[in-house]
Fold:
Amino acid sequence: MASQGDSGGAAPSQRGRPRIVVEDSAGRRPFMRGIMIHSLMARGVTFEDAFRTANEVRRRIGRRQVVPRGEMAKAVREILGDEPFQEDRRLPLPVSITVGSEGHEAPFSKGTLSQSLLASALDPNDAFDVAREIEGDLLAHGIRQVERRELRRRAYETVAREVSAHAAERYLVWRRYQHGERPVIILLGGTAGVGKTTLALEVAHRLGIGRVLSTDSIRQIMRLVLSPELLPALHGSSYDAYRQLGPESLGEEPVIDGFRAQTATVSVGLRASMDRAVAENASTVLDGVSIVPGLVDLRAYTESAHVVFLVIACLDEGAFARRFESRAAEAKQRGKHRYLENLDGILKIQDHFLDVADRYDVPIVDNVSFERSVMFIIRHVTETLRKRRDFSAAAML
Structure:
């Protein structure tokens, strides 16, 4: 039987009664049925038999506080018989592979490797299959320690062979920029209801980016410190901000005028968030209706960050109603009728996004399929980074 815990005298239980201890030449250890069950299962005993045995041993002990280990082992054999212990039926320990050099090692993990492979814009199932193939190859060749550079080479070659050379290069590109000297800032703009936040969270997850921020949060914080009298447009929704403004502030397109007035204010907080990402060298995904092409001068970040901008759209007007139905089901406080009643204004803002995206050469993602949109965004991010500097797969390997 495995040891019952650390040595030491009897200690009171949570109910104030002294714990039962198991005594042998090494000292005293607390008796716990959970530990006995675990110990027996490690010897090949089924959970049901281990559970039954631990309970029976506890019953036999009764009110005794100190039990010799030999007596307890004898009781276990009487309950189970000798058969479970005649062969070495201990559960086999998994073969351990470590990554890194001596003193800087970490356990190999298919999950961790497949996570990093998602930057290739692979399907998660395909990424895990690649990671599993690499693990199998290491085990087949008796490799129990692999350098990080060698693991990167194997990942690159496997993706190139199983998927494509372009996908393999995307993996290397992101490995180069993920922890670089400058942060990667991904901006996802678009009107209400197109799925920006859901996409932002998934893209950040697949790229291993720990910071995701929505301009909705920025706008809400600014509302707490800036009164409606000072900045009225800030205190409406994107599609009805014009209602907070006087007629003298509006032109022929009041919805767009109110929207632009609101986003001009929120853009101050957007720039502050980008500046903080630069100061902390923290890659970030920012999404929101207030992220409008041309509103923030991205040239100011040319030397301090890698900024990638995309506009998310939903070109199927009927899909908006379905998205708002889904929103209402998931968050009762966000009523669908409020969005549906303002659908014309939301679509006008989308048309505005499409116009300025075209003017500033910002790619547009028609979010018809969530999975395809995620992969397109990741592919665009890595391809953009690859083009910004001379990239050589050989240098990375």
In short: The CA atoms of residues 183 and 282 lie 5 Å apart. The longest helix spans residues 254-279. The first strand starts at residue 21 and ends at 24. The chain is about 50% helix and 10% strand.
